[in-house]
Amino acid sequence: MAVTIADVAKHAGVSRSTVSYVLSGNRSISAETIARVEASIAELQFRPHAGARSIRTKRTGVIAMALPLVHGPHNQVQMPYVWAALTAAQDAGLKLLMLTDDDGASAIRDAVGTAAVDGVMLMEVQHKDPRAKLLRSLKCPAVLVGTPDNPYGLPYVDFDFAACGRAAAEHLLERGHAHVGFLGQHPETYRRGVAYAAHARDGALDALREQGAQATWTSCLPSAGGVVDALSELLGRDPDITAMVVYNEWALPLVVDRLAGLGRPDVDIVAICPDDAVDRLATPVTSVSLPVEELARTAVQRLAGLLNNEVQPSVTMLAPVLKVR
Description:
Layout: H1 5-12, H2 16-24, H3 31-44, H4 50-57, E1 62-66, H5 75-91, E2 95-99, H6 104-113, E3 119-122, H7 130-138, E4 142-145, E5 156-159, H8 161-174, E6 179-183, H9 187-191, H10 195-210, E7 214-218, H11 224-237, E8 243-246, H12 252-261, E9 268-273, H13 275-279, E10 286-289, H14 292-307, E11 315-318, E12 321-323
Parallel strand pairs: 1-2, 1-3, 3-4, 4-5, 5-11, 6-7, 6-8, 8-9, 9-10
Antiparallel strand pairs: 10-12
Helix pairs in contact: 1-2, 1-3, 2-4, 5-14, 6-7, 8-10, 11-12
């Protein structure tokens, strides 16, 4: 049978209200009484209700990840971030609440306004992200995972996607390619102004054009038909393409297969993706590695530090690593 407050009160020789006051901290209780109650709690292995603990500590032990989930097969791309953040939160003694609404502002306002969470980790950050301004106005501890045009004074953690795109393009330039295509994310990602997608694309295209190369880009729907259409568009606009930067993890194996089917297996590819996406390919592909786990883990650690009133760096930028295969 579960131990109750009444059991603790009887064991400690105090009233039930005294035990409640010790748990909540709402009244001044003598040090001797507090010690006696806490000893009884420990001996009886009493587990206070989470609400009672939160009243005393002003903390819930819960952080939120605001991540609009992309529907369809693209979900598998987002899940490693979720699992890495969940593990990091557990390591920090925190629980993770997912806020997955497409319009994250209302969910954030509700979670913070009702004191359901201690802090928020903001994902899928847009160039002009109203959620960042909202979090600032709510005075809620928060970390942005991405680089907006204006972070409103909130700390942010990101992979240097502009440098990532540039590294991929410069590798292809060094290999002598003068006509390079860039196959990017879902068109909705660009329409919403998600920062990482634009930063990677612009970094690659800028590097190519600075060296006088022909640079062509298109977005790509996460489907076999989407890959066919995207490659048709790229090769239709520039039939002389001899290399591609592929920043679409889901599409990558289909791109490799489709190029082989078109009689173009010689097209040089640099992928921007986590290592395991390349490892699954039958054909080796050079890549710029995305440290998914490190990014999510770092963001959780920054947020946990804020909750503990520890000064955190305003910007944490992870550098790209080119892996030639």
